[in-house]
Amino acid sequence: MPKRVDHDQRRTELAAALVRCARVRGLHAVGFREVAVEAGVSVNLVQYYFPTKESLLHGGLLYVRARGAARLRARIDAESAPVARMRAMLAELVPYDEASTELYTVHAAYAALALTEPDLAAQPHAAGPDELHPELTGLIAEARRDGLAGGDRAPEREATALLALATGLSAYVVSGYLGPAAATEVLGAALDRLAAL
Fold first, then answer.
1. Residues in Cβ contact with 166 at an 8 Å cutoff, skipping those fewer than 6 apart
2. Which residues form the HTH tetR-type domain (predicted)?
């Protein structure tokens, strides 16, 4: 009996190979051949699942987004109180291990490439903050209702400031300017100020 192929699994494996290549060589230098070598398959197989370079890049982007979202959701959902959920969300945005550094680096490469590639720009390359912003806004509003946070600035503006801080600190971490612990401490201090207002 012939072996049944799990096409979704194969597509995921190829997207993972693209991400590993992009982390080492840069996204601009990754093509069918590099992905095939990394995955240990033929170029034809890669092209079967991703017929064009654009579809290959899109597959990698979806993979990065799905992995990042799963890690984030697991960390946030492990907490119940709004301030703890905020702390978990922001801490997960800062690269702190090999996997999160890879995800951040490749996602940032997609964002940079999207500045000059209109087709890629139309993809959800920057949807992370867009998706997180309403959730963080809601958590800030909930914390204020519960008396756990103060301040009179609109929760939407607080959320924007916190996400911008996390994004900037993430860049500092991958560039080696700050370590993950120091970056997380800065984020924690920002949340402590919010709680103390």
1. 90, 93, 94, 187
2. 17-58
Q: What is the pTM of this model?
A: 0.84
Are 93 and 171 in contact by the 8 Å Cβ rule? The answer is no
Could you give the CA distance from residue 157 to residue 99 in angstroms, rounded to a whole number?
Answer: 30
* Residue 159 lies inside a defined structural domain of this protein: yes
Query: Tell me: the pLDDT tens digits for 149-164?
Result: 877 889 999 999 999 9
Find the DSSP H helices in 94-126.
98-114, 118-121
Cα distances (angstroms) measured from residue 136 to each of 65, 156, 170: 18, 8, 18
Average pLDDT score over the chain? 89
Q: Which amino acid, 98?
A: E
CA atoms within 13 A on the CB side of 92: 22
Pick the more confident residue, 105 or 148. Answer: 105
Closest of 50, 3, 127, 5 to residue 17, by C-alpha: 50
Q: Which two tokens stand for residue 142?
A: 């909930």
Find out whether 60 and 19 touch, Cβ atoms under 8 Å: yes
CATH code assigned at 148 = 1.10.357.10
Q: Is residue 96 part of a domain?
A: yes
